[in-house]
């Protein structure tokens, strides 16, 4: 028998065969086999193979694997001589490792190109609705000062992920007088949500600084206002860890729609006029400040950026709604009611949302019955007769 009768198969072709139809025998030493092999391969020494193949269909291909494809060639030669359909894996396990490395490099290159496209879209296609409003909000409300170290808090949703990319672009193309930490808390996400967060961070080139908590487990047994408690606990943990990392600010991804929804919720359900502020000093963590750099960016533009780049983010990571990793989130909440109301009003006038926003910018104290500041209440009657 000559070597011309010996069949060989390339690694790529082997990996594309039906796993149910391939029988791969790895003849390398047991300790080497244990450190890694081709998926589905079984370990047999050259001496054990004939015993294992007794009773097998001689026409069933047996793929023999060694480290370089040389020792396996001898085994294949013997098996063919005994009437079996044996095939040598060309290049052996070494060729498999080279193939896997090439695949990883190709995937990384493709991901790098996709990341560049995503970054370019912020500066080009979405320059006016997103980039300019991001920088306008930061400048108008003086959110960043020289020497700041900002913890960019990432929950895994579209808003916080976009905020992270905007901060990266701000450092790259604009101001570079501040430091960033991309802080991610895992309060007990399910495996699917956590995988999506990590995959998106890798795609977008966001280096996560992760810490673990058990907040979801803690609030799962709370019957009254679990969402409020969860939000307060998460905010507290973020402040605490950000301060430990030397940060003086935390950045949250609230956007324009969140602001006007908060205004209406305060009026309808709280009986007061107030808004979500663009920045706040922390009352419980001295020297810490909260900023909201997405303050002027509309949610519809965030969604447009997401969809344009074919991105998929988690939307409701809460333990109570965790089965919908990519759905629209909890239904029936007061905030959801406000979203629906604003959508109805928008159909009547395109200026409604901006007018709601401006209503807390252009407050005329002479036409207000009363207001509060620093715990003190004011009534128009207090100086009515002086006018």
Question: Can you describe what's shown?
Answer:
The chain is an alpha/beta fold. The protein has 14 helices and 13 strands. It has helices at residues 11-15, 30-34, 49-53, 71-81, 92-123, 127-140, 158-173, 191-204, 215-219, 226-244, 256-270, 299-308, 334-348, 352-359, and strands at residues 7-9, 23-26, 42-43, 62-65, 86-89, 149-153, 179-186, 208-212, 249-251, 279-281, 289-291, 370-373, 376-379. The protein has a six-stranded mixed beta sheet, sandwiched between helices. Strands 1-5-4-2-3 form a five-stranded parallel beta sheet. Strand 4, helix 4 and strand 5 (86-89) form a beta-alpha-beta unit. The longest helix has 32 residues, at 92-123. The protein is elongated, with a radius of gyration of 31 Å.
Summarize the structure.
It is built from 14 helices and 13 strands. Helix 11 crosses helix 13 and helix 11 packs across helix 14.
Could you list some keywords that capture this structure?
about 375 residues, alpha/beta, 14 helices
């Amino acid at each position: 028998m000559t070597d011309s009768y010996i069949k060989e198969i390339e690694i790529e072709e082997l990996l594309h065969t039906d796993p149910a139809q391939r029988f791969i025998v790895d003849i390398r030493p047991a300790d080497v086999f244990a450190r890694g092999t081709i998926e589905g391969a079984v370990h047999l020494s050259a001496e054990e193979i004939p015993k294992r193949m007794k009773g097998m269909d001689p026409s069933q291909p047996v793929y023999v694997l060694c480290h370089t494809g040389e020792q396996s060639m001898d085994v294949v030669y013997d098996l063919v001589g005994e009437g079996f359909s044996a095939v040598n894996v060309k290049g052996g396990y070494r060729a498999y490792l080279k193939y896997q490395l090439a695949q990883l490099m190709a995937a990384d290159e493709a991901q790098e190109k996709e990341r560049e496209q995503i970054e370019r879209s912020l500066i080009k296609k979405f320059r006016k609705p997103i980039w300019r409003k991001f920088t306008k909000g930061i400048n108008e409300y003086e959110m960043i000062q020289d020497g700041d170290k900002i913890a960019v808090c990432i929950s895994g949703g579209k808003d916080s992920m976009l905020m992270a990319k905007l901060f990266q672009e701000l450092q790259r193309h604009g101001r570079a007088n501040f430091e960033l930490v991309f802080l991610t808390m895992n309060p007990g996400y399910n495996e699917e949500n956590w995988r999506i967060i990590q995959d998106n961070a890798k795609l977008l080139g966001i280096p996560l600084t992760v810490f673990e908590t058990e907040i979801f487990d803690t609030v799962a047994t709370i019957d009254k206002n679990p969402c409020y408690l969860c939000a307060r606990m998460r905010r507290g943990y973020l402040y605490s860890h950000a301060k430990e990392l030397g940060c003086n600010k935390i950045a949250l991804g609230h956007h324009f729609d969140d602001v006007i929804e908060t205004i209406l919720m305060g009026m309808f359900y709280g009986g007061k006029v107030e808004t979500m502020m663009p920045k706040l000093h922390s009352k419980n963590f001295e020297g810490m400040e909260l900023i909201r750099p997405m303050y002027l960016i509309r949610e519809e533009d965030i969604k447009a950026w997401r969809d344009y780049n074919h991105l998929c983010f988690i939307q409701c990571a809460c333990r109570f709604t965790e089965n919908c990793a990519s759905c629209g989130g909890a239904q029936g909440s007061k905030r959801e009611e406000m979203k629906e109301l604003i959508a109805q009003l928008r159909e009547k006038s395109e200026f409604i949302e901006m007018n709601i926003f401006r209503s807390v910018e252009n407050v005329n104290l002479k036409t207000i019955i009363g207001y509060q500041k620093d715990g003190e209440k004011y009534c128009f009657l207090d100086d009515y007769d002086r006018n």
